Every structure is written in structure tokens, then in C-alpha cells.
Amino acid sequence: MSDIIQLLPDAVANQIAAGEVVQRPASAVKELIENAIDAGADKIQLILKDAGKALIQVIDNGCGMSLTDARMCFERHATSKIRKAEDLFAIRTMGFRGEAMASIAAIAQVELKTRRFEDELGTLIEIEGSEVIKQEACSANAGTSICIKNLFYNTPARRNFLKGNPVEMRHIIDEFQRVALANPQKFFTMHHEGQEVYHLPATTLKQRIIHLLGNQYNQRLVPVEEDTSIIKLRGFVGKPEFARKTRGEQFFFVNNRFIKDAYLNHAVMTAFVEVLPEECYPLYVLFIEIDPAKIDINVHPTKTEIKYQDEKAIYAIIRSAVKRSLGRYNITPTIDFDQENSIEHLITLKPFEQIVAPSIQFNPDFNPFNTIEKADREPVYRQSGDYQKTPIPQNWDTLYEISKKETTLQQQIPIDHREIEINEEQVSKASERQLFQIHNRFILSQIKSGFMLVSQQAAHERVLYERFLQQLENHSGISQQSLFPQSVTFHAADFELLKGLLPDIRALGFDVREFGKNTVVVEGVPAELHNTNEHDLLEHLLEGFKNNQAILKLDKRDNLARSLARNAAIKTGTKLSLEEMNILIDQLFACHMPNISLNGKPIIITFTLNELLEKFA
To answer: Which CATH superfamily is domain 10-200 in?
Structure first.
């Protein structure tokens, strides 16, 4: 029997490795940006087309590569970070396995241009599917430029599993934010389809957080700093009153490497006990500096998990540091000396000699009691300039004829008494119910067998949920136009999510259109949602959508209807009139599933007379 075990060809081995290294365009973006940081670059540009499926280009001003290094970087397990096994326990750089470039080159068309500062000419290399197509000298700027075109072009099955552009862009933005937060001292830009998404100048950590997440975060951040013999901790946490329903704004970095650690996250959440609203998650951006010999980062393919030698001590340090910072900074307001000097241009001091008092001119011959209709007797007073003469309009007394005509028309319109009688009968039937509101939370209604209790918030959520689902199916949402359209700005990740939901949001009755960078204009909202703030409404809608998507894995339309219903429903503690309670009960029993809430809990609980008699027996 012949031998059957053989070595895999390099091209096949690289495609297999690409399954772990490059899962989607965001994975390639992460690897390329981290390589640019390891090269010492302080200016990094990211250019995307078709959410990274057609083009991913990273341009940096790092140290560049020689001809040999440019060719070697595409070989498997070729790296400049490790020389011996002991180096694995002293890693402070990002990429060290030497699989990223080889894996990317196996599933894409790659063009590399690089030049060192001391070289006159650079190097151009073109690779398709692990095969070198071109290698020659070229003119290039100092640093490195890598273009990845047509990702997964030779593995169509992998490409078919990619999501839509808004979803893939959100993953890219997540990776970009993590790298940008870890390196606030570096300049980053990001362009997609020719439009600038991020422009992040070199600055402090607090300003980098504000640039990424929004100006409103300037007043929401509490500094955290702790220096011990085990770890050095620094960063910011959000104030409890600004906590959100999703975990999206939580970042842990160990030696400037982003990690996911449920154990350390529990330490932060424990520090927020008794000050955090129910089912809310705080913002935190925390950096841990620790001796690389005391951790093992080579425990996960994506290097987002780390093992620690003394994790219990680290847990205690993080919990106590966050708790102390909340107690120290959260009660009294702080003066932000790191805020940009954006108000300096508003304060302009002039010398006293340059201040000119306003002057008023008037006609000394004007007599307001003179009834002579002369054009020169009706001056119009102004602070400066000549008098403007306006004659008295002719036939001014005919203006009152319009109001007289309107009153006569109103008197001629016949009144349909039959319709009023029908409405009065309906109101009288509804008023025959014996309804009571208990603690502004439950509605009590008497029935033949006893009485029933209805949770008013859960009932209204069920009514709105089924109504919104029907509107999404039929595109029949009614919009209430706003008198003054409002512009709402989101950070890039939420804006990409909103763009993907715009068709369904419009079907619900929102009149929303894109308006510049990460901004939309809201010209109308669903008729059911009157007296609401457009910014808060859309923000809560997206937060609920992300929360449902992470926990329940719902269909997009089902998720959207559920999120909007929960935000728009009347809340516990709202006082209802008798008419409002009757309308709510009628609408509830017209639903397909009136007994089950959106959480799967009962909406209606019935108590019989026999159960009551047993209580008094």
C-alpha cells in the first residue's frame, strides 16, 4: 500500500489559514493597520470601496521595507517580531504570527508599494492567489501602501457568506475604533466610497474618545488611574446616568491590545452596583499595562483573549479603582482643561475707543394726531439711513369682509347629527365598564366570573408591536410632519446601522433623509409618536435594535417593530383617564395574541370569585 500522507501545497495551506485570520473585510483591515503601527507610522490612512469587498488600502509613513523584506512578508510564518521561543513571553507588538499577509495574498489580489527612508527607489509587488505576478523597482513615498482588491475572489463560497455593506462597514468601524483608541497619539483617516468617515488628529485619549463617539461625551467621562506593582490602570468610565442598553461602548486594552474578557468586565460592573439603572451597561475605555511575562496572549486565533497569572488581584484592583473614581468625580462637576479651545473665537475684546454707540434718527415735524393723509407725514423710523415713506393702503375697511364670509360659510355647513349620535352610543357603552387604575401601573376590570388585571405598559407594547408589524408589511405608516425639521448626528457605526434600516424606518412613518456626514434630517415621525424628541427617539430605536439583535437574534422587521413599540409605549407610572383605559382594552383584545407580552410574560391575569372567597375563608 502506497503512502497517503502528504504535505499540503503552500497555496492550499494559506487558504486554510485564511479561514482563521481573515473572516471578513474587517479582519484584513485590522491586520494591515496593526502592521502599520508596528512599522512606527504616526500617520495612517484607510481607503475602502464596497465596504472592503472591492478595495482595502492602507497607507502609512512607517519605516518601509527593503526588497527582500517586501518579498518575505508574504511567506508563511515570516515575521520580524520573534526570533526564539522565549520571545513569545515578551511580546508588545500586534502581529507576530507571520500568517496575516500570506493568508490575505491567498484569497485576494494584493499590490504592495514600499520604500525605506534611506532608499532612492521603492519596491512594487503584485500577488494573486499566492502567485507573484510582478516584482520590480518603482517610485514610491517613504513608508508602505498596501492595496487588497476583490477579497475572496477565488473562494466564492466564502464571499457569498459576507453580509450587506452596512453590516460589513459596522465591523470595519469597530476594528478601526479599537485601533484608534489604543493609539491616540497617531493621526488616522478613513474614507469610504470617496467620503471621509473619520478624521482623527493626534491628541489625548479623552479627545480621541470624543472624536470617535461624539461631542456629548465630553461631560460623561470620569477619569480612572491606578498605579500598583501588579498593573498600571488608566482610562475613563462613563457616568451611571448615561449608561446605555447595549454593551457596544466597552473597551479593554492590555498593553495597547484590545481584548474581550468577561471576568474583568464583571469587575467593572461590580463597581457600578447600586448606581447603575437596571439592565444598563456603562461606557468604559480602560488600559492595563502589565509585564508581558505575566500574561499569555497566544491562546486565541484572533488574539482577543488573554490568560493572567494573578487574575484575582487584577480583578480587585480594577473594581476598587473604578469605584473610587465614581465616588470622587461623579458628584461634583469637573473642569475640563483638555477640551479644545472652541470658545476663544467667541470672545473678541475691542478697545474702548472703537466702541460706537447706536444712533436713532427721527422727524421732528411728525405729528401722530394729524389726520391729513399726506405721504410725507408717514415716516418709518430706522436706526440709520433715510426715511422711507409708505402711503396708507386704500380700501382698508374691506379687510373685515373676509372674516364675515368665513362665518357665513360656517353657518351654512350642515351638521351630521347621526354621526354624533353613533359616537355618543359608543362612548356610553365604553363608559359602562367598571375600570380602575391601580398605582398607575395596572388596569382592573370587572368581569362576570370575577375581575382581571391588565399591565398597561405590556398591553400598549403588544398593541403597538402588532400595528408596526402590519405597517412594515404594507408600507402603510402614517407620518406626522414636523413644523421644524431636526438634524440628528450619530457616530459612524450607528449611522451605518441607520442607513441599512432606512427603508423599513420610512415604512413605519418616519420621514428621514441623509444630510451630510453621519447626519440625517427628520422631517416627520409616525403619527402615534407625537410630542417626542427626534434625536432621543432614533437613538433609543437603534439601541433597542442592537440589544435585541445581540440577545434574541430576531428578524430585522420583527426587531424594528419590537424596539419601536417598547420605546413608544406608555410607561409604568402614567396616569390614564377612563376613556384612555377603554381604548387600550379595546385595542388589546383586537390583537392576535392579547395575552402574551413581548417578553413572553402574561399581560392579563384573571381572578375568579371563588379564589377571592377562599382568601376570606
So the answer is: Histidine kinase-like ATPase, C-terminal domain (3.30.565.10)
